[in-house]
Amino acid sequence: MGCDGGTIPKRHELVKGPRKVEKVDKNAELVAQWYYCTLSQEKLNRPIVACELGRLYNKDAIIEFLLDKSSEKAIVEAASHIRSIKRAHSLTICT
Predict the structure, then answer these.
(1) How many domains does the chain have?
(2) What secondary structure does DSSP assign to 59-70, as a single string?
(3) Is there a domain that residue 85 lies in?
(4) 74: enclosing H helix or E strand
(5) Residue-wise pLDDT tens digits, 79-91
(6) ω into residue 47 within 30 of 0, thus cis?
(7) What is the per-residue pLDDT across 52-72, written as a single tens digit (0 to 9) for each?
(8) What is the full DSSP assignment across 14-49?
(9) Domain CATH for 73
(10) Residues 6 or more apart whose Cβ sits within 8 Å of residue 29
(11) CB atoms near residue 64 (< 10 Å)
């Protein structure tokens, strides 16, 4: 098992270095911003609204968020700046 006098451990075997930071794929992050609702993490469906920060939301998710304030904390931070439906502007999508 080592360290019984017969082997000499190397430094990398004894000392653990700093953990490598996971790199987020930028393309995957852009896809998530443009194709998924920031609030519900579901695929964007019409009608789509945007806030003044440029985040995209499903209108149904915004209405549910405004009606039910007992949401999870992480979700509340994603839309905490939206106080009324007037703060979310409807988008017209041309295909």
Answers:
(1) 1
(2) HHHHHHHHH---
(3) yes
(4) helix 73-78
(5) 788 888 888 888 8
(6) yes
(7) 888 999 999 888 888 876 656
(8) H---PPPPPPPPHHHHHHHHHHB-TTT-SBP-SSEE
(9) 3.30.40.10
(10) none
(11) 13
